[in-house]
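Co-fold these.
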Amino acid sequence: MVSFALHGIGVSGGIAIGRAQLVSHATLEVAHYTIPATKVDEEIARFDHAVGAVQEELKQLHGTMMASGDVPGEFGAFLDVHWMILNDPTIAEAPKRLIAEQRCNAEWALTQQMGVLVDQFNEIEDTYLRERKSDVVQVVERVLKRMMGTSGALPTPAAEERTILVAHDLSPADVIQFKQHRFAAFLTDLGGVTSHPAIVARSLAVPAVVATHNARQMIHDGEMLIVDGANHVVIVNPDRAVLSEYRLKQGELEIERQKLKRLRTKPAETIDRQRVELHANIELPGDLEQVLESGATGVGLFRSEFLFLNREGLPTEDEQFEAYRSVAEGMDGKPVTIRTFDLGADKSKEGLDGLVRVAPNPALGLRAVRFCLAEPRLFLTQLRAILRASHHGRMRILVPMLASAAEIDATLAMIEQAKETLRERGEPFDANIEVGGMIEIPAAVLAMDAFLDKLDFLSIGTNDLIQYTLAVDRSDEAVSHLYDPLHPAIVRLLALAIGGAAKAQVPIAVCGEMAGEVAYTRLLLGLGLRNFSMHPAQVPALKQRVLTTDIAAIKPLVDRMRRTETPAKMVALLEKLNA
Amino acid sequence: MQSRTIRLRLSQGLHARVAVRVVKVASRFTSKVVLVVGERRASARSLMAMLMLAAAMGATVRLETEGPDEREALEAVAAILAPGPGR
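Predicted complex below.
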C-alpha cells in the first residue's frame, strides 16, 4: 500500500490514529432507470415515504439537540431551514411529476429537480443567497440516502477500533449526529475554520482537517490514517516508522493533557502568595470549551471580528447577541471581555457602500475605534448586542486603539446611546457594565490620566504597542528583526502603564503575545502585572511559571531591567531572571 | 388587496432564516401573501420561492396580501422584513 499525505486546514488540533470510514456521497452515485407505467404510483409512494422519513428524522434531531443543549443555537435554525426546504413543493412535489411524466426512478427525478434548482441558485448574484444551494443539496442528499437504503444516519463507528470519518461535506444535521458517536477524528473535502464541523470538532476536542479537496476520493474504506490537526496534515497508510513516531507524539500529548488537567483547578499564585488572574483570548464562541478546559478564570479578549468571516454584509444585532450570549452563559459568571470591532475599512467594504478606499497606511488609518466612531450604525448595533448579552453573564466592553480623551468620551456617549435604546425597548442589560480601553498606542501610555479617570479597566495590546513605538511592521520581512519586546523603550512603557494603573487602582491586563510567552512572565510580574490574557493553550504553562515565581526575589532584577539601556544587557538580565 | 413596498435593510437580504420566519408567520393567515421583486413573484408560504427572489440587502420588495385577514397578514410579515428599532 502506498503511503501518502493530504493537506488541508487543521481546524481542531491533536493527533488521531485510526481506520477510515467513508461517508457515502449519494448525489454522485444515483442510478437512472425506467419504470413500467403500472409501477409509477408505487414509485411516487416510495418517494413520499422517504421524504416523510427524513422530515421525521430532522424533527427528532431538533428535539435531541434542544434537549442536550450543548450545540450552538444556530444549528436549530439550520435544521429549520432544511426542514422547510424539504417541505417545499419544489422538492416534495415537483419530482413526483417527473416520475409520472418521464417514468424514471424517484432518485433520478429528485436529482434532476435538484439540478434545476441549483442552476437557478447559480444565477443569483448575491454570494450569500447563492450559497444556499448547498442547503438544497444537503437536503436532497439525505432523501436520496434514505431511498437508496443507506440511511441518512452516519455510520456507527466500530467499537473495537478507532474510526476516522471521511466525508465530502457534513451538513449541520450530520454534525449533530456526529456528536452522538465517538469518532476519533474527521476529514472533509470542503469546509473552513468557521464551518459547523470545525466548531463541533473543537468543542469535542477531536482532531479535524477540512478543505482537503479530494480526501473522500483518495482514501478507501478501512485504510489506516493519521490525522494531525495541529499540522494540517493527514497521512494515509503510514509505514511502521511513521506510525510509531506518531504514537509516541500522541502519548506525549496525552501526558501533557493529563498534567494540564491536574493544574486546571489550582489557583495561579506565586510563591509569595500573590494571586494572578490568567484569562483566555478567543476568536469564536466555539473556543469556549478549550477555555474551560484550560482553567482560565475569564475571557480577557474576545475578538469579535469572527462575525465578519465567511460572509458578506454586516452581522445583525441578533446574530451578535446570540454569539456573545453563548460565551457569557458558557463562562458562568466569570468575566467575558469583548473587544469591539477591530476592523479597517478594507475588511468591511462589503457591507458599507462607498467606503471602499485604499488607505495609504492602514495601520495608521481609519481602523478599530476610529472606524467604529465613523460608522455609528455598525458600532451601536454591536454595543446593543453586547449590552443585551450582559444580562446573561458578566460582560465587559473593551475598546481598541484609543488615543485621546475625546475618543473615550465619544465612545462612552455611544454606549449611553445604546443603553438608552435598550431602555426604550424594555430590554434588560447590566447598567453597570465595565468599559475598558486597549493600551496599544504610545500616546495612551504617556497621557494615561484620561484613561484612568474615565475607564473601568485597561488592557495592554503589546503587539501593536511595540509596532507603534518602534515604528516596525512585523509582517514586513525587511524590518521584522527590529521588532523587539525587550527594547528599553518597551520595557519602560510597560512599567509606566502597569505602575500608573496600579497607583490609580485601575485593573490592568496584558493581552498581547507577550502575555502568553513564559519567557516574559517574570518580567511582567515584576513590573506589577497580575492579569494575563493569552491563547487558552498557553494557560497551563503560564500557570506553571507563576507557581514557581517569587516576586519579591526577582524584583531587584526587574528594576535593573527598567533602567538598562543596552539590548545585550537586557537579554542577559532576562536570562538571569528566568534561570 | 393590501400592499406595501419595503426596502430591505437586513444585512444578508432575505436570507434563509428570515425566510423561514416569513413562511411560519404567513402560514398563520388565510390570506394570500406574495412577495414581488422586480418581475418575480413568490408565495410567502414557499421558502424556496422566496430564496429564489434573490432579494439582497438594499433590494426593494413589494409585499401583497389578499384575503379576509389581509391587513393583519401585511403587518405581521412587514414586521419581519423591516424589523423595529434601529432600522
